[in-house]
Amino acid sequence: MKKAFLGFLLLFLITPFLFAQEDNARQEIIELSKTKWQWMAEKDVDKLADLFDDKAVFVHMGGSWGKEREVDIIRSGGIWYKDADIHEVSVEIIDNTAILLNRITLIAEVGGNEVTNPFEVTEVYIKKAEGWKLGSLSFTKLMGPADR
Question: How does pLDDT run across 124-133, given as a tens digit for each residue?
Fold first, then answer.
C-alpha cells in the first residue's frame, strides 16, 4: 500500500512538469516554423540547409524532392517564398517528432510570376542531438481562402 501511494504521489508531482515540457516544445516548434518562413523569404539557404534534415522531403503542387533540390530552388529563385501569412497553427508532439499544421496564405514568386495561394502546410520536425530538424514540408492547396 505504501509503495502504491508513493508511486501515485510521484506521478502526481511529475505530471505538471511533463505537460510543461510538452508545451515548451510546442512553442519552440511554432517559433522555429515562423523563423523558417522568414529565412525562406530572405532566401537564407545556409540557415535553411542547417534546419533541413539530410533525408528531408518536400511536397509541392509541382512535385516532390529532397533537401538538395529544395535548397537549390530557393537559392536560384525558382521559388521565392515572399510572405507566409499564418492564420492558424497547431502542433502535436509524438515522442521525438513534432507535427505542425499551418493554415497560410502564401505569396510566392514561381518561375518569375507572383502567385498567391491558400495552403494547409504540414511540417514534420524530428528532435535530434543537435536540435530540431525539419524532416518534411508539404503544401496542400485549399479550395477557398486560407483564413476560414
Answer: 999 999 999 9
